[in-house]
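step 4 of 6: structure.
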Amino acid sequence: MTLFNLGAREAGQYAEPVTLADLAEQGEACSVVLESGDDVAALKPYLNRLELVVLRFPIFRDGRGFTQARELREYLRYSGEIRVEGHVLPDQADFLKRCGVESVVLPEGSDVGRWERQLKRYSVSFQRSVLPEKALDVGTRVAR
Amino acid sequence: MTTAIGQYQYDQVDRDFLAARIEEFSEQVARRLDGSLTEDEFKPLRLMNGLYLQLHAYMLRVAVPYGTLNAAQVRAFADVARRYDRGYGHFTTRQNIQFNWIRLEDTPDILRLLADVDMHALQTSGNCIRNVTSDEFAGAAADELVDPRVHAEILRQWSTLHPEFTFLPRKFKIAISGSPNDRVAARFHDIGVIARPGDDGRVVFQIFVGGGLGRTPIVGQELYDSVPEERLLATLEAIIRVYNAHGRRDNIYKARIKILVQALGIAAYREEVEAELAQMDIARYRLSPEMVASIEARFAAPDLQVPAGAADILAEQRARDWVFDRWVRSNTHAHRSEGHIIAVVSLKTPGEIPGDVTADQLDRLAGLSERFAYGELRTTHLQNVVFGHVRQDQLYDLWRGLVEVGLGAPNVGLIGDIVACPGLDYCALANARSIPIAQKLGARFADMTLQEQIGALQINISGCINACGHHHAGHIGLLGVDKRGEEFFQMTLGGRADDQAAVGKILGPALPEDDTVDAIARIVDRYLQERSGKESFLETLKRVGEAPFKEAAYDTV
């Protein structure tokens, strides 16, 4: 498994993540894997012990993971690591990062250079994200 | 370069962004060509950059944000049409322009050419927030309360490469108007926004959700009556977040927000949105008056000076030239400022393809806009072109310039002003060709005196149930269906897209192409017999019901 860091924080080493259903029974579990249909609000009771939330993309076109990540950061104020695995494309690197995802389990045969390049591609964005980005001017643009 | 009228003026940041976006797309094309991206992976990436694969070739759909263009941009379209297409372009029902004969390898060069005039093809397709449409008379109409283009631009920027909403269950279309006379079909959009002045002097927004045409035509429902300006972005985020999380992804025909709104009910959808808003960091989404002002400052306004007596000159010219007078009656709209007028150029010349323009016509439109309309043009969702601010004493010269290039059809809003999708001539989804029947109808009703006598009558034609020709919203709608290899057309009556939006009702069995043209001619004859006083077709239909028209339509069959 090759991990790619989207931001400054290094991806951590954790025990095998459990499913949302198993989280209640496994009182020690500090990492969980969510399917794209899972409701992140269900994680509320476990936030104090969670260190890793893995969001699984069944296919890159299924964008529910972006909302899950934002809800984790924005609604639950979750500050641990968010990781994605499954079918994701380097073209999505910046979107993932700006929704609060920090690491990616790179799909087999990935070109790391493409992921790195995608993160450096834009110097501006046109809306606020969960990241502490600075407003570029009075308008809605932010500097990257 | 002087600041363009009626559109957001790019700065270096915007231009650098566009260059980076084109670079990204060029790399994606290269990866597709060398095989490192599968077609399945490339497809959504090319779509969100406006590139479709049609029946015979790639099609590039270029965004015209809120339908506003300047002369240089229109000349760039002419350039693209000549160099990379077959000498013409096609204005769409979402105010964009598309080029139907593009080579994949050429697209990066075309995008660079367009970027030189601050144009792009971003989000004109794909399952993302599409290019935002607006009122073609924005900033000019006498009946307007708020110029919607500033907020349309804010929405354009906000939705550009939105990190959360770029892989939605399905496409997402937003329209915004600032007039009580809905000219944007707000109730047939995923989100329709109607702006008006609020009590405190700031703008407030009425918001409709869950409207749409396609296979399941539904009139949008009001979600909020008056959202304050500073909550506009927060509210839209909440609406779309609910949709992204809960919209169906198992069946593309049930994936639009309208299906989710129907499944939950509008009250429950509102509760979901409220639940999001209650958890959101509202300050982060706040659209402050300062932000709005900074965007507004990038828009130039025309200096509407007119010589004394402009209106008299126009009246004289109308009296002297009855052909011009007829065009003025059908193709102009009242301007907010005395001495000015709004002119609509019909792209529905009888016998021609609705919405098509040649490169030469594009160049002429650009030139005329510079001479007579402050260098500004607009596209309409009915596939026409508008000059927003024309001095009344110069309207005659403008009209003569249009007539010279075959753009003088006096049929705006009349039966010849047909909206049609590209149909089976271009589109892989279509069951029938939309263009030939549009041409035949145009020819059948080519007599402009007859058209004027018939009055307001909108015909919409779609070549398949995906309804790109908006047939459900046509006063008379035609849907192409395939019956054992032959093209038939199903007729609907009574659709409309305005503030009394309604879905047309199916009249009866589908007919072959020529029989459909004849049936419509009989329907129109029947209307002329039935109507009382100055009733429009829709008013007569409402009063007498569909029975007489059904009888007329199937009379000889």
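step 5 of 6: annotate
 - Chain B touches chain A at residues 13, 16-17, 20, 23-24, 28, 36, 41, 44-45, 127, 154, 157-169, 233, 241, 244-245, 249, 279-281, 284-285, 287, 290-291, 293-295 (CB under 8 Å).
 - Chain B has four domains: 12-115, 133-296, 310-404, 419-553.
step 6 of 6: archive
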